[in-house]
Specification:
single chain, Peroxisomal Thiolase, Chain A, domain 1, binds oxa(dethia)-CoA
């Protein structure tokens, strides 16, 4: 059975923060951010919004475009690293309630920025196994809530947003998710971590260093990892499906840093135009970045039925993964 992306939606908060605006509060510059990352702006949620709110906007749009009734959704999977609450209740249950999906199970999936790639394979496998007919998969983040706005090494990189897809059995067996790779190198966990608040380092008033409540990152190590795995994922997915580079219509990489994408393109000797990027406008929205990019491509008629599209992700864990699909 082939499982396909039946519909897609996305939502980004209205408030747009340019590099120049950020440079008013932290020691950085538009020139540094653009030359080191390709980022020009990011969108940041309002005080009233949380991850579930962003996810509900994106999920509602995907549901409307799917043309199925709320009763037909069997499962909500939310990929996020910035849930409404730590541990429980799951944010996916809050979304299931807000979207009024009466027959749906719900769980959160944590795989850092690779969350959407993991979710796509999880949803596909559950539909193929007969455990669900239609799955609503959402990648949603409010990283602004767990960002240390005094740390210029990280705060310039991230943004908020959400993207959603409905997965169903494909009416055309030639179209759908062809293959996935899900990987983990947990020995690199320290390189991208939010230390406090879990069972390893519970929050203790007056004792927990404030910076441990926020994202901490060794940029160089994550950069080297990202370039390596991005290249490997593309190579492996093509090799094991006996495909050549030029058969691909699009590569949609996790939008973390334009230099990571350029480095992968150079190593693979692939034209950069094959890689869809919108990092300049949204920065790194973690598990939301790939579906936000796919939605933009869909809305701008960049995706045609039958196109071969390859998604690549990498992030905290350290995790990595990819999906090869026929649109
Ligand atoms: O989804 C996965 C999440 N994370 C990533 O994908 C991040 C992967 N890493 C990266 O994208 C890059 O490593 C960064 C963009 C984070 C950093 O770029 P870099 O070229 O690796 O810079 P660097 O860390 O080697 O820092 C170079 C200099 C340092 O100054 P000194 O020590 O040479 O004087 C930093 O302090 O740039 C400085 N710097 C900044 N300067 C202005 C770091 N951040 C900033 C900043 N503005 N925002």
């Amino acid at each position: 059975m082939s499982v396909y992306i039946r519909s897609i939606g996305a939502y980004v908060p209205e408030r747009r923060v340019s590099n120049d605006e950020l440079a008013q509060t932290v020691d950085t510059s538009d020139e540094w951010i653009q030359s080191h990352t390709g980022i020009q702006a990011r969108h940041i949620c309002s005080d009233q919004e949380s991850t579930s709110d962003l996810a509900v906007h994106a999920g509602r749009q995907a549901l409307e475009r799917a043309g199925i009734s709320p009763e037909e959704i069997d499962l909500v999977i939310l990929a996020t690293a910035s849930p409404d609450f730590l541990g429980f209740p799951s944010t996916s249950s809050i979304i299931q309630d807000k979207l009024e999906l009466p027959n749906s199970g719900a769980f959160d999936l944590v795989a850092g920025c690779t969350g959407f790639v993991y979710g796509l394979e999880t949803g596909r496998a559950m539909i193929a196994a007969g455990s669900a007919r239609n799955v609503l998969l959402i990648g949603a983040e409010t990283l602004s809530r767990i960002t240390n706005w005094e740390d210029r090494n990280t705060c310039v990189l991230f943004g908020d947003g959400a993207g959603a897809v409905v997965l169903s059995q494909s009416p055309d067996p030639e179209r759908g998710i062809i293959d996935s790779i899900l990987g983990s190198e947990g020995k690199g966990a320290e390189h991208l971590i939010r230390r406090a608040g879990g069972s390893r380092e519970p929050y203790t008033a007056g004792k927990t260093p404030e910076e441990n409540l926020y994202i901490q990152m060794n940029g160089r190590q994550v950069y080297n990892f990202a370039v390596r795995v991005n290249t490997e994922i593309i190579k492996s997915l093509l090799e094991r499906n006996e495909m050549e580079y030029d058969q691909l219509n699009w590569i949609v990489p996790h939008q973390a840093n334009i230099r990571i994408i350029q480095a992968a393109a150079n190593r693979l000797k692939m034209p950069i135009e094959k890689f869809f990027t919108n990092i300049h406008e949204y920065a790194n929205t973690s598990a939301a970045s790939i579906p936000i990019a796919l939605n933009e491509m869909y809305e701008n008629d960049k995706l045609s039925a039958g196109d071969y599209v390859l998604l690549t992700g990498f992030g905290a864990g350290l995790t990595y993964g990819g999906n090869l699909l026929r649109w």
